[in-house]
Amino acid sequence: MWLLLAGNVLLVCAADATPIGCRRVPNFGKLYHVKGELSLPHSEIKEPFEAWYDLEGNRSRIDYRNGKVRTYLIGNDLDYGVIYTITPVNTATEIQAIKCFQLNGTQEGPIRPQAALPDLQGFEFEKMENYEGVLCEVWKNVTQVGHKKNTYRLWVTRPATPHRFEMVGFNTLLESHNDKYTIDYSDFSPQTESDIFIPSGGMTCEEFPDPVEEHQILANPIQDYVNTSPVSHAHRLFGPFKEKFNRQYESEKEHEERENYFIHSLRHVHSTNRAGLTYSLGINDFSDWSNAERARLRGGILIPDREKDTE
């Protein structure tokens, strides 16, 4: 216990409290169930999901699009854990065929439970603010790598209940806010059922199809959104894209712009494919173009590219 003088008021604070108004960093526990909706304003996409998390059991499950895609991260399977993804797939002979894919962990990269909530290490209390009629604490974290500067905010009430998570990206070279996404949470509960982590029986799981570089995003889509790093797995896929399509940009500024367009394209492709539609999208030669550039190519009409790249 320690004392804090705030104006003329003497506050008695718990030993584990932060110095700002005696507020403790929210702790959502080692076991929870939560629903959410991921919003990608650039693509005008809203993607619902439902998550179950059990840290002590070394397992998690996240369903996307009302269960159309189910991901199980089981850390105790095999030597280093396994991710199982059950998802509809379009092939040359099948439409929305339900398949199971498997990604095994390694000694260097063991599988761990995937949280649907951000790790609040490094976050600081910013202010109190109403969100949809509820007075929330706002916790903030700013991270920067190179020209990428991301500001993360979480709106939360007590006992620790998440309401909204927001990322706003600023590129210092472009001097612009070029990225944003939000997650709105609901139905948070500090408990879950144990059998929810067992994948459906009777299915044979196979390796994820090519390209190999996209396996992590296919197996664990939410990891890039709740991770508070300006350089995500999606950013690391820009290198293979440039190599495949022989990209050479005239300046560092153009490189930053094209990488930003690519990230938005990649998110749009994978989020749309999780919807279980009768067609699939894919990364192609236009994935580092802006919406305006693609619109000019199509005569001013923005049309989703439904032909998956197979090169």
TrEMBL record:
The UniProt record lists the keyword Signal = yes
Q: Which residues form the Cathepsin propeptide inhibitor domain?
A: 238-294
**Keywords in alphabetical order:** Signal
UniProt signal peptide: 1-17
One Pfam family assigned to this protein is: Inhibitor_I29
Protein name listed in UniProt: Counting factor associated protein D-like
InterPro entries noted in UniProt: Papain-like_cys_pep_sf, Prot_inhib_I29
Organism name? Sinocyclocheilus grahami (Dianchi golden-line fish)
Task: Indicate whether Repressor appears among the record's keywords.
Answer: no
Q: Which domain of life is it from?
A: Eukaryota
